Amino acid sequence: xxxxxxxxxxxxxxxxxxxxxxxxxxxxxxxxxxxxxxxxxxxxxxxxxxxxxxxxxxxxxxxxxxxxxxxxxxxxxxxxxxxxxxxxxxxxxxxxxxxxxxxxxxxxxxxxxxxxxxxxxxxxxxxxxxxxxxxxxxxxxxxxxxxxxxxxxxxxxxxxxxxxxxxxxxxxxxxxxxxxxxxxxxxxxxxxxxxxxxxxxxxxxxxxxxxxxxxxxxxxxxxxxxxxxxxxxxxxxxxxxxxxxxxxxxxxxx
Amino acid sequence: xxxxxxxxxxxxxxxxxxxxxxxxxxxxxxxxxxxxxxxxxxxxxxxxxxxxxxxxxxxxxxxxxxxxxxxxxxxxxxxxxxxxxxxxxxxxxxxxxxxxxxxxxxxxxxxxxxxxxxxxxxxxxxxxxxxxxxxxxxxxxxxxxxxxxxxxxxxxxxxxxxxxxxxxxxxxxxxxxxxxxxxxxxxxxxxxxxxxxxxxxxxxxxxxxxxxxxxxxxxxxxxxxxxxxxxxxxxxxxxxxxxxxxxxxxxxxxxxxxxxxxxxxxxxxxx
Lengths: 254, 271
Fold this sequence. Notes:
A: mainly alpha; 88% helix; B: 4-stranded antiparallel beta sheet
């Protein structure tokens, strides 16, 4: 049994080392692609970012609405319903915006990336590129990675903005919280550091979610089962990684 | 063999294994310039693996592969990519990029490797598509093509950079007789018209006899026989005769290694 444990540990170290090298290779090739093939990155920002907008906006609106309801219901017990805006803003900008956006990104864009790359591998498109002297890492992987990294903070910002709109609609328009108090309390308590925390989180989550999706797709077994498994692993591992990282960044910033 | 013959690719003492399975155990093979060389063998003998070793998509355990006298194991990535620009490869299923149209698939290597004006690219691509008879399909997507059409588009793409070496991986598999005839004629025409050297991996004996100048038959990790298709079909070796005449049993056994049939049916093999 110890032998098996030792072998699994060695295998884990090997995979982890390969993962780090893969990340470094993506980073090393990123400046070249940003400078020379920005058109490929823009295409991927559209694929991962713009095409995820609808799901992000719908979810953002309803999460904001729930924050409005919960905030009002609980804060009114202490006669503090005017703080509903502050409550919603803190929750959205610091936590829910980046985290839920990243989870939705993993489900919508991460799976699309992993399965697309896995299928390209299974149908020998990546080998064909290699044979045409085109490096798949530069042509396929780096633009997709960068597209995700650029999209995520923007999606998180849209999520938070729509969420605040939803919270405002529920708290002010439906439940009668004073609009002036809703915004004024928010402005006086929120600090730039709170917004920055959200931005840094969404940027880190963008790197992690895109990296994991691209890695899983690129290392998928070139079979139908292999691509399916890579897609599932992308969602599961990204969700776990994001929640752990969220805890770590929050712990550091408090 | 005559050493005055001009060899483009020379493989010496090639060893390659995948896991515990030995695929090549001291393979020696030479490919002449400007000829169509066929590599044949039963399924699982490593024909496609050999192509991947020649193009250094895989690295051998031992042995050397020389292309134009250059040992490809010594090349760095930049030099390897420069060498690969001299290759055109037709994959088994075409391997067309599914998010690009037929036109853009053929234009892909030109756009990646040259700064040609769009008009010139259009001219070159249409010429190549015309050569394979698919100029009219330029705007179609790969998913709309039949298997034979996809392979012809892949052939147009493989030759768009005017390569020195064209590699065909099982080009005749799964084609209807008309598409098959078209591909056989195209392979011969491309070789003669463009003066390229072609390597053709296949186990379709009839088609190979129609196009190949020289054939190698692989078995057991080595070259079992070589010569023109005509010479091979009259060879005395039992293995060659079994393969060339499609006999079910012979040196290549019909049955995969298995325990005794009666013992297994009686359930004694597990004891």
